[in-house]
Write a structure and sequence with these properties.
Largest sheet: 7 strands, mixed
Helix content: under 10%
Order of helices and strands: EEEEEEEEEHEE
Distance between the termini: 40 Å
Strand content: over 45%
Number of strands: 11
Length: about 130
């Protein structure tokens, strides 16, 4: 079993920054791709970013150039650095552990490819 615990959410003004963390336990963290997703009120959960075991990254078009996903395998932690935040970034953010070490394209975007999910952390951006 894998446990994922997100932290770092909060209230920030538009244009500001936040860094989300996701601490993982229960399996060899470095062997799997990791992803971040988000769900805004009244909307479906959507892909934000993914990081493969080999270091490849994927981003949703809406966050490209503003968000950066990274990981520290020694700490079993994946991060999401969010800069230039906008009101439309307001959502509950979830980290997830992918089924495999490697993913590409839709394999990284599809929620069904992720076996484990955290409980989510709220990010609110005020305009």
């Amino acid at each position: 079993q894998v446990q994922l615990v997100e932290s770092g959410g909060g209230l920030v003004q538009a244009g500001g920054s936040l860094r989300l963390s996701c601490a993982a336990s229960g399996r060899t963290f470095s062997n799997y791709a990791m992803g971040w997703f988000r769900q805004a009120p009244g909307k479906e959960r959507e892909f934000v970013a993914a990081l493969t075991g080999g270091g490849g990254t994927y981003y949703a078009d809406s966050v490209k150039g503003r968000f950066t996903i990274s990981r520290d395998n020694n700490k079993n932690t994946v991060y999401l650095q969010m800069n230039s935040l906008k009101a439309e970034d307001t959502a509950v953010y979830y980290c997830a552990a992918h089924r495999y070490y490697y993913c590409s394209g839709y394999g990284c975007y599809r929620q069904s490819e992720y076996d484990y999910w955290g409980q989510g952390t709220q990010v609110t951006v005020s305009s």
